[in-house]
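Pilot study result, target chain (182 residues):
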Amino acid sequence: MSRSGYQDAAEKTKTLAHQENEKRKRILVVEDDQLSLALLKQLLEVHGYEILGTPEGLEAIDIARGEQPDLILMDIGLPDICGLDVTRLLKQDNQTNTIPIIAVTALATPECENKGLESGCDAYVAKPIALDNLLRTIESFLTSVPSAIGSLHIDRSPTSIDRYQVANGLEGPARDGQRRIN
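Predicted structure:
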């Protein structure tokens, strides 16, 4: 192969790699615990996502406006501003109001979940995180039809949870074996 042929092949490989990176979905992770941020970043990168991360809510607003991620994972307890306030500001902004936001927090009471959903969060995931559940939730927003996003309903009745656990092989001791991030 001539030198020109090698250069053309190398350029084609670069172009394919660039196109592959362009297809990757970008997730902004807003998490003030550095270990949790690093773990989420590694987990999501392994699953093919490009990750932007910040421990601060105000910086998250700037990143969301400038980078336009496909989805945001939002911790609620941030050092500079409450994650619910960040969510409200993002949902009121024409540049960011269509970005799905999933609250990821240790505040796991029904009242906190209601406040999260009222603030504009599209879903609510309690810590410690069941990784399979988090990945399914993320994927549901990144592959769903945009008009279906607003109609998400989570049935948390005991019978629904039992059906979910049975359907997903989580009944009994297997539930305890799930990998989790705190």
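One observation from the pilot: The radius of gyration is 19 Å. A full batch analysis is planned for the follow-on phase.
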